[in-house]
Write a structure and sequence with these properties.
Elements (H helix, E strand, L loop, with lengths): L2 H16 L4 E13 L1 H8 L9 E12 L2 E10 L14 E15 L2 E14 L2 E11 L2 E3 L2 E14 L3 E19 L2 E13 L7 E4 L2 E4 L3 E10 L5 E13 L2 E15 L1
Antiparallel strand pairs: 1-2, 1-15, 2-3, 3-4, 4-5, 5-6, 6-8, 7-8, 8-9, 9-10, 10-13, 11-12, 13-14, 14-15
Protein name: Ion channel protein Tsx
Keywords: Signal
Organism: Chromobacterium alticapitis
Length: 259
């Protein structure tokens, strides 16, 4: 089964289970991503990894049951243009599926089998990350925290599939009320370490350097205006990731319709 069929099968499996879940959520959103001026300037001068501001449409959903939980999204980036002559402006398709399966409970702390597949592709480009490991769920009052650690495999255009060290990270968040309105804050973060020689190269304006560790994530503030509508602002960051050495950052502005 090829990659595209595998991702489709995983998405259909998740969707078919939604109707019988203990909790579910689905939404669609419009998003505008604006890189910082320093990121744009630095990446345009690099031999690869150029960045440009762009819009993307997203559909996402999740479910939880007694056996575990599933989350996934599909993004259509640069939906309003398709500039094949400019790699930073080509239309891209991004899918992520995360599944966590309950294994046991140790002292009241659940232990879960953690899996995720992240796939992004465009004109003359694709990159797929696969992670298999362990995770858990922790909560402290209104704060929830879901960390993981796993083996990392990467399939990339021009290199094939290879073991790429390890990945650790988390998703976290909490709900609160301010000015009489419901808000929430969330964060996702990933750290890659022990990268293989196939994937250590990241660009800088004067060439390419090798970095064994990379950071990737976002911090978000959401205004849950109504049951159906959510507005959000996200601070997107990366360090020695997304093809570029050093720091990169952006702001993402989101309008979301919840089903």
């Amino acid at each position: 089964m090829n990659t595209r069929k595998t991702l489709l099968a995983a998405s259909l499996l998740a969707a078919s289970a939604l109707a019988h879940a203990d909790y579910t959520f689905t939404d669609v959103s419009f998003n505008q991503l604006n890189w910082s001026d320093s990121t744009l300037e630095k990446t345009q001068a690099a031999p690869f990894g150029a960045k440009r501001n762009f819009q993307y449409l997203e559909a996402e959903g999740g479910m939880g049951r007694s056996w575990g939980d599933v989350y996934g999204f599909f993004d259509l980036e640069n939906w309003n243009r398709n500039d094949k002559e400019m790699p930073a402006g080509d239309r891209r398709y991004t899918t992520k599926v995360v599944a966590r399966f309950n294994i046991t409970d140790i002292g009241g702390v659940p232990v879960k089998l953690y899996t995720h597949v992240y796939d992004t592709r465009g004109y003359n480009f694709f990159d797929q990350n696969r992670v298999l490991g362990l995770g858990t769920d922790l909560s402290f009052g209104k704060v929830w925290f879901k960390p993981f650690l796993g083996m990392h495999q990467e399939l990339k255009y021009g290199t094939g599939a290879h073991r790429n060290g390890w990945m650790t990270g988390y998703v976290a968040g909490f709900d609160f009320t301010a000015f009489g309105q419901p808000f929430s804050m969330t964060q996702w973060h990933e750290t890659e370490f022990g990268r293989s020689n196939y994937f250590v190269g990241v660009a800088q304006p004067n060439g390419v350097v090798n970095k064994r560790t990379g950071q990737n994530g976002a911090v978000s503030l959401w205004w849950n205006a109504t049951k159906s509508f959510t507005a959000g602002v996200q601070y997107r960051y990366a360090v020695n990731k997304l093809g570029i050495a050093g720091n990169e950052n952006a702001m993402i502005y989101t309008a979301k319709y919840n089903f």
